[in-house]
Design goal:
Structural class: alpha+beta
Number of strands: 4
Number of helices: 4
Largest sheet: 4 strands, antiparallel
Low-confidence stretches: none
Number of domains: 2
Distance between the termini: 33 Å
Strand content: 15-25%
Order of helices and strands: HEEEEHHH
């Protein structure tokens, strides 16, 4: 279960009410947290109300730090969200499979940290990064 509160100001710092919220839902100490990278993207969501599923397309993925930015122009992150009843009937899942779009699990945060050279340990992601390189039409993303 996700628990959220809106964040509308002070995007680079944790406000007092947010620190209180973090403490109430987790064991995280807000004073120990700091911004690592900024991630921006545009999201398109399409829903099938009859089958109770939705598919999101994240495009224009941009990772930035104060001094630099990395834009991934030709990567689209597609996520299909559905209930177990829809599993075999999903036209979206069938279309993705028909177009050889198979699942590849990796968070945008982990991808950004690797692409911005903010981590030394990324061996477990290497096969996924190599696959993303093959899919890219603008040269290697990594």
């Amino acid at each position: 279960m996700k628990k959220r509160i809106p964040k509308t100001e002070g995007l680079n710092a944790i406000q007092a009410n947010e620190a209180s919220f973090l403490g109430s839902v987790s064991k995280l100490n807000a004073a120990m947290l700091f911004p690592a990278i900024e991630i921006d993207f545009k999201r398109i969501t399409v829903a099938n109300l009859e089958l109770k599923e939705r598919i999101t397309f994240d495009i224009g993925l941009t990772f930035s730090e104060p001094q630099r930015e990395k834009v991934i122009e030709d990567l689209v992150i597609v996520e299909l969200k559905r209930d177990s009843i829809t599993e075999g009937k999903s036209p979206a899942a069938l279309a993705l499979k028909h177009n050889s779009a198979y699942p590849l699990s990796m968070s945008k945060y982990c991808l950004g940290m690797i692409l911005m050279d903010e981590t030394e340990r990324y061996n477990k992601y290497k096969p996924k990064l190599l696959k993303l390189n093959k899919l890219s039409t603008h040269g290697n993303i990594w």
